[in-house]
Amino acid sequence: MRIIYALLILSILVVIVLLVGSFIYLEKTTHENLYYIIKTNGRDVGDIEIDRYVTERNIIYKSKVGKPYETGLNKKDIRCELDRKTSAIKSYEEINSDGGIKELLYLKRENDDLNFLAIAKSKFAYLANMKIKKDALFFDRETLMTLVPLIKLYNFKKGGAQSFDVLKYDIKLLPPSRDSVILTSIRDEYIDMDNKKIKTECLTLRAKEMEQVFIWVAKKDHNIIAVEIPDKQIYIKRTEKRKKFIVKDYLLKDLLYVSQKISFISKKLELDSVLTRPRKAGVYPAVILFQGEDAIDKQNYGIFIDLSNYLAKSGYVVLRFEPFHERSGLKFKSISIEDELGAIESAVKLLKEFRFVDPERIGIIAHSDANYILPSFLAKGPGIRAWVMLSPRRLTPTVDTDSENIKALLENICRIDPNHSKDMSNSQRLTLDILETSAKDRKNIMGKKVFLKRVRDIIQLNPFRDMKDLSIPILVLLGKMDNSCSIKYLKEIEIWIKENEYENRSLVSFRKLNHYLGALIKGDTLRDYYKIDKEALETITGWLDKNLTNQ
């Protein structure tokens, strides 16, 4: 009897071992986890993680991309779901984030059509029933994960040039466009990976209006080993080790001034700010720094650091802040224009409470499209005595298609995809329909909660109408190399300035400067930032001395 029990126990153990072994085998064959390092100009600037899961019906790709030195939203989380039999896209979700802000691109197939939703900068765009080819895949040459399905579909036995239909998302808040790419195997070569020689096959990736990309895949399993994008000087290489990045933010310090972090309340929301003031005791004029939609924090890519430093050394108290709550966790930016203007009003009240601030000499320096929302507010006389407009840009419900860089991109896109203009019009119409038929400030679209109020507010804006009622001095600074602005809009500003020059209104242009009025600086451990031009700083300070300090 004991022998029978022993055999029974042994057989159970054997079954358990076989089951565990089969699960491990299935995990290895249905799940892949790969790591990569991103280099730019030979410098390690980020990393990529890609997971591939195979289920009974689907192939699921997940990817995390981190580029900690980049300005703007430098973290990317992607999830792509493909049909296992046909490799057709079922859904694609991409979330770009940094700190407490995130933006979304979401594509979902419905039968043979595609639905599109984008959320960015408190704005959104939607399109239903976009016509695409059955086997079209989402593609972005700088997003490694989107190359993996293309490589999996490439027939290495056949070789040669093979074409694939793709969807590209080149412009935020506009629908994706249709295109095709060609993969061509050109040679075999060995690639060094973590001191190991890997035999690879090199392929080129080409498309219309796109510079050529080189991809090296392992001969053994066709996993991507390396990618080179020559025109961008980007090189991505597989690694077995994760890399830790040491990243520091751009800061300036000087014995002539002090900086302190403070919080203030606006519409029951606690906002974080930095106050910079001269160290020497006295009563000083004050300036509020106000950033545009693209900014993700109170530094505004470095230029507000430079302004705070220079102005404080020149005898000004400077307050910079974000008009949103940065400690509330990762979320979509949901800020109405009412919220932003309320934050400025609260900032003015805060400054007037300090004994070292002259309450009758408070000005504002606004950057980019922040200037578009100010006229109606300033016309009400909130206690702001001077206004400096840095690189003013028009604020639009989705994308300003009159801006020079967007116009150039759209020309290329529409040459390749003649139906894209129709998709843009349909998206604009559907987006406006949602605003008109929804009474609430938020709505569920494609399973995502979308903030509607800001787009409604933008539609109602008319800055040139409201600027007629302004009596305060105004300085406009433009960079001639700024291609993110509409020339038509800038000409309207120039005309308005000329018509009102006698009222302390002036415009200064800098021939070699861009939207941030300075050069992009890349350091070894510092996050990339813009260093504002010294002449621009001197122009701003000199004008404030004349029109705010000496009023």
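The above is record 1. Record 2 follows with the same two-line structure.
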Amino acid sequence: MTAENEPGRASGHEPGSEQRTYLKSKRTYSPKVWQLDAPSQFLGAIRSAGLVPPNVVVSDGKLHRFASNGKRGDDAGWYIFHDDSVPAGAFGDWRTGLSETWHVDIGRRLSPGQETALRARVEAMRREREVEDAKAKAEAREKATAIWQAAETAPEDHPYLVKKSVKAHGLRIHDGKLVIPMSDDAGLHSLQFIAIDGDKRFLPGGRVSGCYFIIGESEGALCIAEGYATAASIHEATGFAVAVAFNATNLLPAARALRTKFPSSRIIVCADDDAATEGNPGLTRATAAALAVNGLLVVPDFGTSRPEGVTDFNDLVRLRGEDAVKRAIAAVSPAGLDQHLVNIDDLTNCDDPLPHYVDRWIPENQVTLLAGHGGGGKSYVALILAVCVALGLPFAGLVTKQANTLFYSAEDGEQVLRKRLSRICRALAIEVASLKGKLHLLDASDLDPALHREQRVNGGRPSLVFETPMLAAVADLVKRLDAGLIVIDNASDAYDDDEIMRARVRTFIRSLRLKIARPGRAVLLLAHVNKASAAQRQNAGSEDYSGSTQWHNGVRSRLSLTSAEPNTLTIQHAKANFGPKADPVTLEWHDGVPVVAGTHSTQGAELAKELVRKDDLARDEKAKSALVELIKSFDARGELVSTSATGPATAFKLLKGEPGFPKNVGRDRLMPLFRQLQDEGRIYRRAVRTPNRKWKEVFTCTPAPETAPMPDPRPDAAGTRKHDRAGQGVRR
């Protein structure tokens, strides 16, 4: 067994060699192209698994070690490579528990004889790997025990502890390095060493996966963090027991081991926020660990002025102090299920309609499913809905809530998206410029678009990690774009799993709801119909979606798109949890665009405009009535609603949090509505004297007396001045 670190060794080869000598046959010949490419494929597989591959591959079928992290002296990586008729191998990392098998892609299916030979070779490699792995781990345990027993108590003034501003909670010191024991219920397995400069190394050959080091005593709550300094900072700030998992990859195995050890404890996974690293591995792995053990997740919040390079709770303590960590942990750690109990003290306004981005069709905070035949127009319909929401336009008489919109296209590329949008804008008489900053199209067709996929993260064992880095990236983009409606086209690409498995479908929809639809947003998920519906092109409104019934049960609203007649589409509201179902909507294809039936002709277009105008008037009247009631309530309580458009106490800031404030009214719409109410004589501007004896102009529903004075605040105005502002209601 040797470590590979120098290229050009006699027993190995580099990709690109033109000939190769096979020792079994003792003859030289020109190999096939895929045989020449086998070493490159093997090295690529190692690299794709997240390891730094060796510089050279030795094709002797024996186990070799290499530096899987690229650092000198490391030999945690291992591989076995056979280069015969069908090159095959295995590789892994003893530090993380990773283990993979591989064989070359020969461009066709293997023959029965080749398959039998390959299975036998892989089984032989597995047995050799297990023997070597067991031997290495046994040697590491003995060495770890000897070092730990001989090591002395670590001093509190060790340079690394001083730099990180933490204490030595049970650590020892060996050759000037801090020593941290790595254990599980079976005892000590390995050690981690931390040098003065912060360089961290594991005992060669020792086990990492599933090991941990606990600081403090677990009394109901147990935190898990990656590194020692982070864990120590959390313990010192909160007093909670904290387990060190040693790296992001081990968060999930350690969390599982700790859940077995503490079955009733509340587990809080404390993530590193690796925002500057692609895929944010710290947050991604921590999220997976929390989900797997039914735990809670907490992420350090560095605010808007986040310094470069900060990622964990140790950084947060040194930047903001221990109180910042206390607040973060306290926000997720109320005892047991108490935090999820529903408050029933005040049940007023419970009959108010729940907010929707498209009335009755697409509720806030939820996932809505739109199922339709492949090539049947559902992508077009979804894009039209996205345009309507982006501009706040009604669709087929259904009111929409204006919001920025993100269209995630996993099927169609940029050219198709641009073409469809251009046609839609022409059909709806919309200027493309009006969509700038409001509608965002994301072409994910050439990326890996999966938002859900089972992933293996340690030891080749299937884990409960389903949320992909792409899901985290989309969630981050949604926040940065301030998107309210997110359309995902299509479930067949975004859900890379078995559509029949109820639990997997439930997990996917839950992830969309928690990570993207909340808070205050909505997801429209497009999906294909089932095989029977696709073949017969029917079953509108019934169970026409493809896969488990959980696709229907897991969403709060479901739409079904079918084509019963040529050139015609029908949208039926198949499920509505938050109110009555909407009536079916009929669409007709005109100029390649499905438009609401009756709106394509000139007469129909004018009718559509009139319907839009009436919808706008009705929406405004409802909002104005709500505002009048709010002003009346403020009058009754003796509270003031300022007419000022700026400052700390504007009308919008005062009213937006009040029960009954119209949800579709933003800062920009509020003052125009107030002006309309003034013109209609339903509210007034009035000057009143505040408790500090200053004059202030406010909105009120009570007209001012004709002689009510309002002194001029200027010193030379003798205390009075004339007011003639329209609608003021104050005269002299």
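The chain has four domains: 12-108, 144-338, 363-600, 611-717.
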